[in-house]
Amino acid sequence: MSTWRVYLSGEIHTDWRETIVTRTRELDLPVEFSAPVTDHPASDDCGAVILGNEDNKFWYDHKGAKVNAIRTRTLIEKADIVVVRFGDKYKQWNAAFDAGYASALGKSLIVIHDPSLTHPLKEVDAAALAVAETSEQVADILRYVIRGELNR
Questions:
Q1: pLDDT greater than 70 at residue 126
Q2: Residues 6 or more apart from 94 whose CB is under 8 A from it?
Q3: What is the CATH number of the domain that holds 121?
Q4: In three state form, how does the secondary structure of 22-63 look?
Q5: Cβ-contact 10, 87 below 8 angstroms
Q6: pLDDT tens for residues 57-74?
């Protein structure tokens, strides 16, 4: 059985990624995970630290966004499945962008969010092949699509 490549995008303030990774390992699924840089300060500062400081916040953020996009684009393009988690604490425009990019590339997209975000994310949900509420549901989806096993 070949290894499936799953990109885990979205909010970085909870352990949802670890839950999916742990559960898929418990199920012994052939999955290789990748993700954006989840160290928030490193992600924010990478462009200025590597390419030179900027006094103007726009250009500071612009450099960082472009350096981060090298990783994000590459890993989404290589992924078989893209999982995007939307949390309720912050507006995650980058997560919405990743979902749109994955959809435009024809990637299988799974979205995770609380039911309270159903209305604001209706267009993102419409592009997804599955909309889950929990990381455990994502692991169950992976088990089903990889092995054809349904946990009843």
A1: yes
A2: 9, 36
A3: 3.40.50.450
A4: HHHHHCCCCEEEECCCCCHHHHHHHHHHHHCCCCCHHHHHHH
A5: yes
A6: 999 999 999 999 999 999
